[in-house]
Amino acid sequence: MSMCNTLLSRILKLNRSFSHKNVKNTSLIQTSNFSTRELLKEAYCRTKLKCRSKKLPQDVNPRGVFACNELDLSEVKVYGFDYDYTLAHYKPSLEHLLYNLGRDMLLDKYKYPSEISKLEYKPDFAVRGLHYDIEKGLLLKLDSFLQIQFGAVYRGLTPVAPEEVLKIYRNRIIPIAYVEGDTRVHKANRSKMVHLADLFSVPEMGLMCNVAEYFIRNQIDYHPEILFLDVKNSVQSCHPIMHKIVAKNVEEYIRPNSDLKKYFQLLQECDKKLFLVTNSPYHFVNAGMEMLVGSDWREFFDVVIVNANKPKFFTEVSRPIRVFDKNANTHIWEKVTSLEKGIIYYEGTVKQLQDLTGWSGHQVLYFGDHPYSDLADVTLEHGWRTGAIINELTHEINTLNTQTFKENANWLQMLTQLIEDHQEYKEPEALAVIGEWMAERDYLRNSTKSVFNPQFGSVFRTYHNPTYFSRRLFRFADIYTSNIRNLLNYSLTHTFYPRRGVMPHEYGSYFV
């Protein structure tokens, strides 16, 4: 800052001199006495000093509940929950378990090279919300405009340069039909990309990238789509094995949460109805819930549905709901005409759940971790209110709260504005200065990205835009938080108000 202080002092001194001589047009005299480079440096220094004089934003509460849409809890009569990563939060050991089981399946069933057994899971490589291009074998990050974030595209474990990315896709923006499939034609025309929308997909993608990197480094030809299908089928076919292992060792894989029972008790005492709808099998859910809540956990729930097969549970209308015999570990063939507390149900549809209970519309608040299979259909088709449980929020908010991040983010905003305001200068010396600013901006953007994840950055934003994952989350979730227990900090009559969103044309402040 000494250079800035010296330059500013010199200019201010000259300005005072001009003012004593009653010079009217000081800008012309300044221009004649200072080079364009010095004037740009002066603007930079002024902006830097202004940034340093601003107070840093207050810390965000990592246990807060954040509103995308106004939600009045006094209107909610029924609370529904998913299980995995909603009520049960898993330790990193579960990711390692799924990875290892999938890797073993690749070796045993698909006869992949034995050296793959030495490939260890890299827990900090991938994040949720990425896209995997099945045809091209690339793992990449898209923003809410379907733009590729350069610097966040990987083949295997190796970053792909922006020039190669543009050569592959011919554009920075990917067509929506390529990402989501063309909804105007037959359903068979599926998208070319898979969105990693839940946390179970992270170890699966870790295995995919590890194996791809092995093939590339050893110059082994492979078809990306075949590798994708083999890894996907291997990991998913291991879920029943994973369920049995976790059910026998819940303390090793599930994080304790003593406040969960307190929340259920609060809801029950206030005459709220509770239900559980999960894709997981009963024995797996029961073992986890007994650890989290106690052996009496079923007494809190008016309806429990396992093996729901979401999202079909929310989209199909004719699949019958069945009674599950937990002692015989099978379902009963009789028709279900009512839903009773204490009985475990199997499959079914949301239509039957609503018809048999009378629960519908805005009186229902459903919590899940998956923006599509948990939240999208219930809000779009059935008018339920929705809450997303996003485990990554704790890490993201703790990172946002660091002083270094706040300082870098503020300066990045102001530096970007400085570049925008002076981009019309065309003189070589001006372009050189602005080039220095651009280089500093790139450094800041990469710094604020890498603190979340070295490869892909934040789950919620690219360099400046919200991610594709954020767009879907904000569209389908009325509220979101890191853990169900955070709701204990709010009364059951609390109204969550979203912050007034600032549109680009509304304010000019750097800090909005």
From TrEMBL:
Taxonomic path: Eukaryota, Metazoa, Ecdysozoa, Arthropoda, Hexapoda
UniProt-listed Pfam families: 5_nucleotid (PF05761)
Binding residue positions for GMP: 84
Cofactor annotation: Mg(2+)
GO terms for MF: 5'-nucleotidase activity; metal ion binding
Protein name per UniProt: 5'-nucleotidase domain-containing protein 3 isoform X1
Leader sequence residues: none
Source species of the chain: Vanessa tameamea (Kamehameha butterfly)
InterPro entries: HAD-like_sf (IPR036412), HAD-SF_hydro_IG_5-nucl (IPR008380), HAD_sf (IPR023214), Pur_nucleotidase (IPR016695)
Protein family according to the UniProt entry: Belongs to the 5'(3')-deoxyribonucleotidase family.
Annotated catalytic residues: 82, 84
Coiled-coil ranges from the UniProt annotation: none
